[in-house]
Structure formats: C-alpha cells, structure tokens
Amino acid sequence: MVQKVTCGIKISVETNFEGTFYKNYKIHFAFGYRVTIENQSKDSVQLTSRFWNIKDALKDTEIVQGEGVIGKKPVLMPGETHTYSSGCLLSAPFGSMSGYYNMVNFTTSKKFKVAIPAFKLSAPFALN
Questions:
Q1: pLDDT (0 to 100) of residue 128
Q2: Where are its TM segments located (predicted)?
Q3: Residue range 105-124, pLDDT digits in tens
C-alpha cells in the first residue's frame, strides 16, 4: 500500500493483479486498485475530478481525466473516508500510475489538488 497526505487529505492505494486476456489478437494485463480518500482536515471537501497518468513497461502512456470517480463526486466531512475500486489494462506485465484529484474546500470555496502517490502495477509471475 502507498499513502500520501496533501492539504489534509490522505490518499491510500492498494493494487492487485486480476489476470491476462486476449483482445484483438493482443495480450492485455488487467490490474485492479482500491483507493481510500480520508479527510484529515477540519473542513468539508468535495472531489470534483481526477487525472491519471498510466504507464506500462513498453513505454505506452495513457492519460485519463474526467469528472468524479466511478460516477461519483464524494463530499467528505472532517474525519470521513470514501473508498472505491477501479482498474486498468496494460500491454505489459509491469507499469505504474500516478495523478491527482481536483477538490474544493467548502469552508473557503477554494479549489485545490490532492496528489495521488505513484504506485506500481506488477504481475506476480513476471517478478522472477
């Protein structure tokens, strides 16, 4: 698990390898990840959008950005957490992800970014 705190918002990420499959005559490596967002600040905040930088060992890079996370824009009161699971496909058995969440502080009305710590994606069979 990797963790990082930015502006009182703690991001924790756990990953797992889901398996391989073929699509359009090409092998894909499926990874899942679970993110927990914890509001350790004294203000209420809302996640409004996300930005992901996904890289694999073959130097393929995919940028993913959009509103919310899995169709939600969670509001977190002080001390609350929001956990969600998602996944990605890579063309190689190794890769990494990093990014940030755009958030708004309801007390100050200011927008801010919360860093998502870089984390590695690796298929266990490829580690030997």
A1: 55
A2: none
A3: 999 999 999 999 999 999 98
Q: What CA–CA distance (Å, rounded) separates 64 from 46? A: 20
In sequence order, what are the residues at sequence separation of 6 or more whose Cβ sits closer than 8 angstroms to the Cβ of residue 109? none
| Cα–Cα dist 82/54, whole Å | 22
Read off the pLDDT of residues 47-88 as tens digits, 9 standing for 90 and up.
999 999 999 998 889 999 999 999 999 999 999 999 999 999
Domain residue spans of the chain: 2-119
CA distance 7 to 3: 14
| Amino acid at position 23, single letter | K
What token pair was written down for 115? 């860093």
pLDDT, position 24: 85
Please state, for a pLDDT cut of 90, what percent of the chain lies above it: 89
CA distances from 75 to 17, 87, 107, 117 (A): 30, 22, 13, 21
Q: What CATH architecture applies to the domain 2-119?
A: Sandwich (2.60)
